[in-house]
Amino acid sequence: NMSESVQLSTAQKRKYVKALGTNCPWCNSGDIVGESFDIEGGEVTQRITCSECDKVWIDIYALKSVEATT
């Protein structure tokens, strides 16, 4: 339940994004698991779980660019 989740500080969010989401923002473990992507209204989200401390959070992705395929 997301309403029961522990909030991330602004500093934790910045550090996590700067590190490209490779480690848990709470315990810094690299043992994190992402579920499938959820696409809705131009926003892509992914629920992530840390196998070390059991914290759960949502990664939010933004469209960066587009390229044609051949």
Q: Note the gap between the termini.
A: 44 Å
Output mean pLDDT. 90
SSE order, one letter for each helix or strand: HEEE
* Biggest β-sheet description: 3 strands, antiparallel
What is the SS-derived class? mainly beta
Shape estimate: elongated
Low-confidence stretches: none
Cα gyration radius (Å):
14 Å
Counted by DSSP, the helix tally is 1
% residues in beta strands:
25-35%
Strand tally: 3
Question: What helical percentage do the residues reach?
Answer: 10-25%
Strand order of the largest sheet: 1-2-3
Can you describe what's shown?
- The N and C termini lie far apart (44 Å).
- The chain is mainly beta and 70 residues long.
- Strands 1-2-3 form a 3-stranded antiparallel β-sheet, with no helix packed on it.
- The relative contact order is 0.20.
- Helix content is 13%, strand content 33%.
- The chain is elongated, with a radius of gyration of 14 Å.
- The model has no long low-confidence stretch (mean pLDDT 90).
Descriptors:
elongated; 70 residues; mainly beta; single chain
Q: What does the secondary structure layout of this molecule look like, with pairings?
A:
Elements: H1 10-18, E1 32-40, E2 43-50, E3 56-61
Antiparallel strand pairs: 1-2, 2-3
Concise description?
By secondary structure, this protein is mainly beta. It is built from 1 helix and 3 strands, in the order H-E-E-E. The chain has one helix at residues 10-18, and strands at 32-40, 43-50, 56-61.
